[in-house]
Amino acid sequence: MEKVLEVRDLTIEFLIEERYHQAVQGVSFEIGEGETLGLVGESGCGKSVTSLALMRLLPVHTKVSGQVRFRGEDLLTVGEPKMRQIRGNEISMIFQEPMTSLNPVHRIGTQISESLILHRNLSASKARAQSIELLKLVGIPRAEQIVDEYPHQLSGGMRQRVMIAMAMACQPTVLIADEPTTALDVTIQAQILDLMRNLTAQNRMSTLLITHDLGVVAEMCDRVAVMYAGQIVEQGPVREIFRHPSHPYTIGLMNCIPKIAGERTRLVPIEGNVPSLQNMGTGCRFAPRCPQAMEVCKNEPQEYDVGTGHKSRCWLHAEAGVTSR
Amino acid sequence: MTEALLKVQDLVKYFPIHRGVFQHTVGHVKAVDGISFTVNRGETLGVVGESGCGKSTMGRSVLRLIEPTRGRVEFEGKDVLALNKQGMRIMRREMQIVFQDPYASLNPRFTIGQTLLEPMKIHHLHNPRERLQHVYRLLDRVGLAAEYARRFPHEFSGGQRQRVGIARALAVDPKLVILDEPVAALDVSVQSQVLNLLEDLQNELNLTFVFIAHDLSVVRHISDRVLVLYLGRMAEIADSEELFTHPLHPYTKALLSAIPVPDPDAKRERIILQGDLPSPANPPSGCPFHTRCPVAVDKCRQEVPVWREVQSGHHVACHLV
Question: B220 and A270 in contact by Cβ < 8 A?
Answer without folding.
Answer: no
